[in-house]
Design goal:
- The protein is an alpha+beta fold.
- 13% of the residues lie in helices and 31% in strands.
- The strands form 3 sheets. Strands 1, 2, 3, 4, 5, 6, 7, 10, 11, 13 and 16 form an 11-stranded mixed sheet that branches. Strands 8-18-17-14-15 form a 5-stranded mixed sheet, with no helix packed on it.
- The longest helix is centred in the C-terminal third of the chain and has 9 residues.
- The termini are far apart.
- Bound molecules: zinc ion.
- Zinc ion binds next to loops.
Length: 280
Amino acid sequence: MRIANISGRLTLVGDEGGVDVETASAGRFGPDPQAVYEQWQAFREWAESVPSHGAAPIDDNALGAPAPRPAQVFAIGLNYRDHAAEAGLDVPASPATFTKFPTCLTGPFADVVLPSEYADWEVELVAVIGIRAYRVGASRGWDHVAGVTVGQDLSERVVQMASGGQFSLGKSFPGYGPTGPWLVTPDELADPDDLELGCRVDGHEVQKSRTSQLVFGVPELIARLSAVLPLLPGDLIFTGTPAGIGATRQPPQFLRPGQILSSHIEGVGAMANRLIAPPT
Ligand code: ZN
């Protein structure tokens, strides 16, 4: 199953287009894309039997974040060996965790304002929690995930490295968390633990890897994070980025206004964000 946020309304996505959930369910499920995660099991059961008639074409520019207002957003640093190596750092013994404050979230085709000349890309698999998870073992990790989506953990590298490390601030400028184009449930994926992901800047490939290369994969992240605190329905986990970021290149390369940042994950989808200069 795939669900999207279309102009702020929860929408089932099928081969023929989008079906508005509030309309198709005669109001049983409301229009809010965030609220559905509170009723995830009931929604999944209902969605099994929805006819595709009335499906409408989907306009990319109407797509918003599939989980636009999570209570908690977790993000993991140094979670691919090749990325830790390019950063000159060891792979951590436990997930290096920070937050992206939820106001940074935006849609898969939204313009993103660059606040400085030090904005960098990080394509990531993003997991969305479907069932509250507290002290859950890795073997049951995927059972607590509603689905996955594509994400960019955009990063302002000067702020990120200031004052001994300000990851949460440096990665939370408005628009620094595009996600989408929709949420895909794990059963739709041939192997949810082995998906190609990558990104391009103006069509030039800068990152390409597979999620099988994650040091801590989705089930292990659910276990490690939920050992400390409860993961709530609709929460996001940005799982980390592979090698190929701009900051560690020689010379360093950062995003510029006018460029298009394209991101994809195999079996999930693709998004494209135009970078723009701040208003003067
Ligand atoms: Zn990241």
